[in-house]
Write a structure and sequence with these properties.
With 470 residues, the protein is mainly α.
Length: 470
């Protein structure tokens, strides 16, 4: 989000804080739907920046149908929400006729109205069909489709192929096609929230929610671009609760939004000028400057990401939504396990709930050795987290780096925990142990960012050499 987006959303959220509970829910639903279009960046493929948000809304509607008992789908409230969502999309399409088109709500001129109307009919037909299919099929097909879609968007090669295909279908030249032609804003978080609801429904633990509540949860605008990934049952509990902002809420709003703006737009953006990147790495000639670039990147990525989280938590608190924390001083943790329990917390919890724990149970039931279970689960989980950032070799190596660190720490800790506890018998020794752990953990994480920040493994290896003065 840009400063302009944050200012507009901040003003509208401030207005929502003083609405009645009923109107506030409707207002947040409307604002979340419109935010999907307003935040979507302009794309060079004709009309794609309108179709991608529309597809996100369509998928959400289809999955909500499959998650909701038949007798609860066609209530007056749900029919009105569906009609309102369709009306909003058609109204956005009508802005193509404005003299100043595109409007601020769409990144470029929307497609023709009849095409948008036809797309809505297709979504309605797909939802009707999905509603008749057993949930087990929707669960399997839906999960597969979402994972494949994520893989295409995260893979430069697959994205380039998709971009060329769409350009051909649009009658546009493929000569200038790029993997950056398809940038679907927030889809990683949208997909993970939908997968969360599909899995919880499968396990029988998903609460019944209205279409308005479900769409607001999936597209909640403060958390659309950078999380956190909330849980539906917790989010809806806040959304349904009567709320009138108290003094303590406003204190939290001012503190978190102000801190987030300072972290993101002052500190992180300043550090970005000298942080590790392919361009800066090519210019550095000494080990000292290489370490400065690395430290700048380590703090820039933390301040950037946690700054957005602070802003999201502050904006949400204005309307009574207590989004979960995503960062808790991760660079001050004494070992890598603690670091990952405090870095991008909601993403880590998501992978723990839907991949790490089920895989651990599966392997233990087959009586694999404990060390092998730990090795397989930690490596595979971290490689998947790496792939979530991008299906490229450097992100996968970054995941392997983290998996290796977690495995080594686990084995090391198991073998030497008793000896360390015996040695650290005084407060001074405990402090020495803790400071040493923080120092080593921070540098292991910082060195891992080399794989993350540079686009190819060859550049990363070259930069490691530069850090060593080679």
């Amino acid at each position: 989000m840009t400063l302009t987006h944050i200012a507009i959303f901040g003003a509208l959220t401030f207005l929502a804080a003083f609405l009645s509970d009923r109107l506030r829910g409707f207002f947040l639903f409307t604002l979340s739907v419109l935010a999907v279009y307003a935040l979507q960046p302009a794309l060079p493929i004709r009309y794609l920046d309108f179709w991608l948000p529309t597809a996100a809304l369509g998928l959400t509607f289809v999955f909500w149908i499959s998650l909701t008992p038949r007798e609860s789908r066609f209530t007056r409230g749900n029919l009105l929400s569906a009609a309102w969502m369709g009306l909003l999309i058609l109204t956005l399409a009508l802005t193509r006729f404005l003299p100043s088109a595109p409007s601020p709500l769409t990144p470029s001129v929307p497609p023709r109205l009849e095409l948008v109307f036809a797309a809505l009919l297709v979504v309605a037909a797909l939802a009707a069909l999905t509603g008749r299919v057993r949930f087990g099929w929707v669960h399997a097909v839906g999960l597969t489709a979402l994972v494949v879609l994520l893989a295409v968007l995260k893979s430069p090669e697959a994205s380039l192929w998709a971009a060329k295909t769409l350009r051909l279908a649009n009658g546009q030249s493929v000569e200038t096609a790029s993997s950056f032609d398809i940038r679907w804003l927030g889809f990683s978080y949208i997909a993970f929230r939908i997968i969360h609801t599909l899995r919880e429904r499968r396990m029988g633990t998903l609460p019944e929610v209205s279409l308005r509540e479900y769409a607001t949860y999936i597209f909640f605008y403060p958390a659309l671009t950078a999380g956190p990934i909330d849980r539906l049952e917790r989010f809806v509990k806040d959304l349904r609760a009567p709320f009138k902002p108290a003094d303590e809420d406003w204190i939290v709003v001012v503190q978190r939004v102000g801190l987030g703006l300072f972290k993101k737009f002052v500190l992180a953006d300043s550090l970005a000028l000298m942080a590790l990147s392919a361009q800066n790495a090519a210019q550095v000639r000494s080990a000292g400057w290489a370490w400065i670039l690395l430290y700048a990147y380590a703090f820039q990525i933390f301040l950037d990401f946690s700054g957005y989280t602070d802003i999201a938590i502050g904006l949400a608190r204005m309307v009574g939504i207590r989004l979960p924390e995503n960062f808790n001083a991760p660079y001050l943790r004494a070992n890598l396990t603690q670091f990952w329990n405090n870095w991008h917390i909601t993403l880590t919890m998501w992978f723990r709930a839907y991949f790490f724990n089920p895989l651990t149970r599966f392997l233990r039931m087959r009586r694999f050795p404990v060390w092998l279970v730990i090795f397989v689960t930690q490596f595979s989980t971290m490689v998947l987290i790496g792939a979530w950032h991008g299906l490229t070799v450097n992100f996968l190596v970054w995941g392997l780096w983290q998996g290796l660190g977690l495995f080594v720490h686990n084995r090391w800790s198991d073998a030497l925990r008793a000896r360390f506890a015996e040695w650290a018998s005084t407060p001074l020794r405990q402090n020495v142990l803790n400071v040493s752990g923080v120092f080593l953990t921070f540098h292991f994480v910082a060195l891992g960012w080399v794989w993350f920040a540079l686009p190819t493994p060859a550049l990363a290896v070259q930069f490691f050499g530069r850090l060593l003065g080679i």
